[in-house]
Amino acid sequence: MSPLRSNTSAKARAAQTGVALVAAIVAACSSGPAVPAFDGSLPLGTWGGDNSGMIVGDTAMHIHVGCTYGDVSGRVPVSGDGAFDVQGRYTLRAYPIVVGPEMPARFVGRISGAKATVTVTVTDTVEHKTVVLGPVVVTYGVDPRMGPCPICRRPVRTKHWWSA
Questions:
Q1: Could you tell me if 132 and 119 are in contact, meaning their C-beta atoms sit under 8 angstroms apart?
Q2: What spatial distance separates the first Cα and last Cα of the chain, rounded to whole Å?
Q3: Could you give the CA distance from residue 71 to residue 106 in angstroms, rounded to a whole number?
Q4: Do 143 and 100 have their domain in common?
Q5: Are residues 8 and 78 in the same domain?
Q6: How many CB atoms are closer than 10 A to CB 82?
Q7: Residue 87 half-sphere exposure toward CB, CA atoms < 13 A
């Protein structure tokens, strides 16, 4: 074998190794929670963020922002561009004990990849004012980091393919 051919083969192997290494690094850095295929609704599961969390089931969505929480009945529809805007109920006085009452609320957000940005607008019927919470960013498949206020671990019933 000529020295030129041997040198070319070594360069080719080094280039292949470099490409494989870069591909492995990119895959490792970009791997995160896998969001289920889009079905027109907010993906089922736990979404977590700093001092916020969202639990989405097939019959309801439950969200915490700080020491407050709210609920939306049914699946949350999401438009093709990732936006959602639904009505629900919210409890502003929830910690250390729930004082209530539940109040009308609007939950507006947008999904981008595995992240959702959500703003909650509550009509405070006790203090007769509008309260805006957020925006908060939550990530699919990540546990909420709630600080001093524990997130409800309310079981949210979901349908699974094996129980259909």
A1: yes
A2: 65
A3: 10
A4: yes
A5: no
A6: 15
A7: 3
Q: Which one-letter DSSP state was computed for residue 10?
A: H
* Weakest-pLDDT range from 25-39, 43-57, 69-83, 90-104: 25-39
> Per the domain annotation, does 164 fall within a domain?
no
Coil, strand or helix: which one is 163?
Answer: helix
- Looking at per-residue pLDDT, the higher value among 13 and 145 belongs to 145
- Residue 150's CB is within 10 A of a number of other CB atoms, namely 12
In a domain? residue 39? no
Largest Cα separation within the chain, whole Å, is: 88
pTM of the model: 0.73
Q: How far is CA 57 from CA 38, 42, 63, 131, in A?
A: 15, 9, 11, 26
Question: What would the pLDDT profile of 131-162 be if each residue is shown by its tens digit?
Answer: 999 999 999 999 998 888 776 655 444 444 44
Condensed to tens digits (0 to 9), the pLDDT of residues 21-30 reads 333 333 334 4
